[in-house]
Amino acid sequence: MKVSKIVALVALVAAGAALAPSAEAAGNGKQALTLWWVIFNNPDECEDGCNADDLGNPAVAASVVYASGQISRGNGKVRLVASLFEQADGFADELIAGPGLIDAESAEIHLVVRSHGPKLGGGYLEQITRFADAGCQELGGPNECRDIQFSVHPPGEDASGVFWWPDLEGGRRIRGAVSRLIRDADGVRLVLETDVK
Question: Backbone phi, then psi, for 45, in 5-degree steps?
Fold first, then answer.
């Protein structure tokens, strides 16, 4: 599965993110994380499995949407919880690309965990709500911001392992980490538990 190119497209679309003043690192070892929905609304239109190559295919109706953000505990454990509802009128600023979620029960959903580096003192809310925040090196900050983990939920699959980025086929599954997705006629709900150390 070719999921490694998702980052390049998401980064390209998010390049217009607003700059904010940089903040000092809090120095407590905790990591700021965001979680992103990568939705392939028509997975039957994907070529060779859904991956980044399909994001620009209009027939696939792919989307990238902010899901959640959290600060990991000192031991690296984190639980990310999110809900996404089918939308008829589009999304607000949490939508990076695409039409959003069209049909929860038939979509293939990939989840990407993005590290924003150490928690910054006073500025961490931006770290857990943006694709690129003022703490990221690409915007002049001290932290390397990068995708670190992902999971894949084809239609009908409610549980998935969590893998180190971008190594699905390499089998670098994170021991004890799990992504649970609940689908219904209105949307999807997710609990992803992982270890980022």
Answer: -90, -5
